[in-house]
Amino acid sequence: MCGRYASTRSAVSIADEFAAVDATGEDAPETDYNVAPTKPVLAVVARHPRDADGTPDPARTERSVRVLRWGLVPSWAKDPSVGSRMINARAETSAGKPAFRKALAARRCLMPADGWFEWQRSEAAKQPYFVTGTDGASLAMAGLWEFWRPTDGGDPLVSCAVLTTDAVGPLAGIHHRMPLLLPRSEWAAWLDPDAAPAEGLLAPPSEELVAGLELRPVSTRVNNVRNQGPELLERVEPGPGALELDLLVPDHR
Fold first, then answer.
1. Is the pTM higher than 0.85?
2. Over the chain, what HEC string results?
3. How many domains does the chain have?
4. CATH number of the domain bearing residue 101
């Protein structure tokens, strides 16, 4: 699953990395080493640009970086608080879920992250790990986004959820689920607003992609959502009772 992640790159940097336009304006969230549900987050979407009258141009698609709230609120929800329970969507079943199926068909996004946090549970400990790439690039987590409009005519809420899938390889030693990560070669197909995603796009990441990840034990300070700072991402040797993941995972120190 994905219940916490790090996002330290600026909207401008994300736009450059994902070949997109920065459309965040003054709403871009600050650097966040401990992104939690219901926070504003950066996401990459692709839409048909609209003219001054609001008419979309079907011949063109523009990729942009937007600010969304993490925790998807379906358009039919009576109360936006439901979003706090919809931070993740299972890739295998989202097409059949009323809360996610319309978004999966036409409103998909990428949620850039430095990496995500996962907690390995044992009888004696709950050890946090930071899962990040070894090449310095952002991880592209597959996501869904949706509009919700209040009945009083106020501003719409645009929210999102991270798609999850079965954990691959050594990642399963921490948790049985992981974010659905997409390689650069699949970004365009995933973001295409005019085509439903091919079945292959919803499959777990390849072993080759997972081999490029580092599983880094970190401090339990990340457990508190109020804690911030680069020290949350630093390697800290696991405490007593933690399972010996280093026997399974290459050490990227």
1. yes
2. CCCCEEECCCHHHHHHHCCCEECCHHHCCCCEEEECCCCEEEEEEEECCECCCCCECCCCCEEEEEEEEECCCCCCCCCHHHHHHCCEEECCCHHHCCCCHHHHHHCEEEEEECEEEEEEECCCCEEEEEEEECCCCCEEEEEEEEEECCCCCCCCEEEEEEEEEECCHHHHHCCCEEECECCHHHHHHHHCCCCCCCHHHHCCCCHHHHHCEEEEECCHHHHCCCCCCHHHHCCCCCCCCCCCHHHCCCCCC
3. 1
4. 3.90.1680.10
